[in-house]
Amino acid sequence: MPVTIIELTFIFVIISVIGLLALLLPKWWRRFTWGLACLILIITIGFYVSRPFIVQHQTEKAIENLNIYLKVKYVGESWEITDTDAYRIKPDAYLHVRFDNERFVTYKYQITKNQIKQTGSWISTSGLTPEEEGVSPIHAEK
Q1: Gap between the Cα atoms of 59 and 63, Å rounded
Q2: pLDDT (0 to 100) of residue 42
Q3: Residue 93 burial (CB < 10 Å; 0-12/13-18/19+)?
Q4: Are 128 and 108 in contact, with CB atoms under 8 Å apart?
Q5: CA distance 104 to 135
Q6: pLDDT, tens digit, for every residue of 57-114?
Q7: Taking Cα atoms as reference points, which of 117, 93, 120 lies closest to residue 106?
Q8: Partners of residue 81 on adjacent β-strands
Q9: How far apart are CA 110 and CA 6, in angstroms?
Q10: Which among 113, 108, 106 has a CA at the least distance from the CA of 137?
């Protein structure tokens, strides 16, 4: 993602500046500055290595919560849930649901810690909303 490249470039520049600054300092301060640069590098590597696992865990938890919500709301129906390929750690997740008896309409749900809310829908074949297509969606929530 472009944002990740910008973040990594910014961190690389900071570490480089700290490294160059270390060359100008006396011996004790040089060691301290190199240690600071190494600490920033280790924290950065740790964050970027662990972030996909954190996002995956959040998405799995959101899918689990949405499944429970849909089982209660739409008893006896079946559906398919897909994620939106999010890569950022955030407090809410957006998931797409396609019901088996309504294959061409995709519903978007926002899952937060305290609530689940349908935020939109569109026709999968055209990308238009059901209202624009003139179709009345069966599972629309208001």
Answers
A1: 6
A2: 95
A3: buried
A4: no
A5: 10
A6: 999 999 999 999 999 999 989 999 988 777 778 888 899 999 988 888 889 999 998 8
A7: 120
A8: 97
A9: 28
A10: 106
Cα dist. 128→34, 122, 136 in Å?
55, 5, 13
Cα–Cα dist 139/137, whole Å = 6
- Distance, in Å, from the CA atom of 39 to the CA atom of 41, rounded to the nearest integer, reads 5
What pTM, to 2 d.p., does this model score? 0.76
Neighbours of 37 (CB within 10 A): 19
Axis crossing angle, helix 2-23 with helix 27-73, rounded to the nearest 10: 160
- As given in the structure block, the two tokens for residue 56 are 């995956």
Report the candidate in 43, 47, 40 with the shortest Cα–Cα distance to residue 16. 40
Give the count of alpha carbons within 13 A of 92, CB side only. 12
* Distance from C-alpha of 75 to C-alpha of 119, rounded to nearest angstrom: 21
- Residue 14's nearest CA partner among 39, 47, 32 is 39
